[in-house]
Amino acid sequence: RPRVLSGIQPTADSFHLGNYLGALRQWVRLQDTHDTFYMVVDLHAITVEQDPKVLRERTRRSAAQLLALGVDPARSALFVQSQVPEHAQLSWVLECQTGFGEASRMTQFKDKAAKQGTDRASVGLFTYPVLQAADILLYQANEVPVGEDQRQHLELTRNLAQRFNNRYGKTFTVPEPHIVKDTAKIYDLQDPTAKMSKSSSTGNGLIELLEDPKKSAKKVRSAVTDTGREIVFDAENKPGVSNLLTILSALTDQPVAELQNAYEGKGYGDLKKGVGEAFVEWVTPVQERVRSYLDDVAELDKALALGAERAREVASVTLRNVYENIGFLPPA
Ligand code: ATP
Ligand code: MG
């Protein structure tokens, strides 16, 4: 089985519907076909300032949500990045293979630094893509699921792997992007031309998995729709209706064409009601599972410790090879 690795940051109290339909649902599905390594990337989270108590809480909440959504610890290594010290260790070695100019060209850093001001942006934010390369290369991952926003970082990872292999002998698998066919891009309910996102969506445009489902249904009912009254998928002219159809189709596994037929002659209000109901029905048991994982933190921490142990079995072998190939003494 090809190996795949992915991570998500513990930087919100709840994942949102875009995270699930655009990424986490594929994590769950990949378990059927791939050898899967999934992590909560707390090292990445501290590239911007975090409150320690909140970070710890969000790390557990993230793990609980992943479990509740269907990441299965019997099939996947599910772990917290900081509990596998090899990530930070490999990252240093890779930083020394990365050109300063090369790192400076990363557009995500440029965007984020421009927002924060270069003086306030941390060096960690600058080297973030190198840590990401370490995350991937430690596990000899064959594939990495990537959205458009991560393409440049994966390219850097591939370059670093090839460069290291050329200089020091074959050490890393060069990973390929895993393009997932049926990922949905979800848009803000209040501005269906903008991506739903935790940092830029306003409260009413964002559906959080752990918020009161009644509130979610209400947000859907007040979603911005379009002129006209026909329920047809037309991303250009009817972004609001199209977004709702995308969400409904993903939640019910019904093709958009079928939904269009089912809603023929009905109005926007009916569609919104349908989407709200489908979401509530889907999310209610998810929330129950999250709550039960968070009710027993000791058990949750134990599951994560086991996941970290599994991850380290692979990561420590890679790191040992790296240290040997680069000329360090054998482990003391
Ligand atoms: P930020 O605003 O801080 O970038 P975000 O809401 O975009 O946060 P991320 O943590 O960047 O969320 O993304 C986690 C995963 O969810 C990524 O794989 C990303 O591609 C995916 N994702 C995020 N938002 C959406 C969306 N609206 N539709 C589909 N996928 C999404
Ligand atoms: Mg994002």
TrEMBL record:
Binding-site list for ATP: Q9, P10, T11, G18, N19, G147, E148, D149, I186, K195, M196, S197, K198, S199
Subcellular compartments: Cytoplasm
A GO BP annotation: tryptophanyl-tRNA aminoacylation
Superkingdom as given in the UniProt entry: Bacteria
Short motif ('KMSKS' region): ranges: 195-199
Enzyme Commission identifier(s): 6.1.1.2
Matching PROSITE patterns: AA_TRNA_LIGASE_I
Keywords: Aminoacyl-tRNA synthetase, ATP-binding, Cytoplasm, Ligase, Nucleotide-binding, Protein biosynthesis
GO cellular component, as recorded: cytosol
SUPFAM superfamilies the record matches: Nucleotidylyl transferase (SSF52374)
Positions bound to L-tryptophan: D135
Any one Gene Ontology molecular-function term assigned to this protein's record: ATP binding
Reactions the enzyme catalyzes: tRNA(Trp) + L-tryptophan + ATP = L-tryptophyl-tRNA(Trp) + AMP + diphosphate + H(+)
Main location: cytoplasm
InterPro entries: aa-tRNA-synth_I_CS, aa-tRNA-synth_Ic, Rossmann-like_a/b/a_fold, Trp-tRNA-ligase, Trp-tRNA-ligase_bac-type, Trp-tRNA_synthetase
HAMAP family, per database record: Trp_tRNA_synth_B (MF_00140_B)
NCBIfam families (alphabetical): trpS (TIGR00233)
Biological role stated in the UniProt entry: Catalyzes the attachment of tryptophan to tRNA(Trp).
Family listed: Belongs to the class-I aminoacyl-tRNA synthetase family.
Quaternary structure note: Homodimer.
Protein name: Tryptophan--tRNA ligase
Biological source species: Amycolatopsis japonica
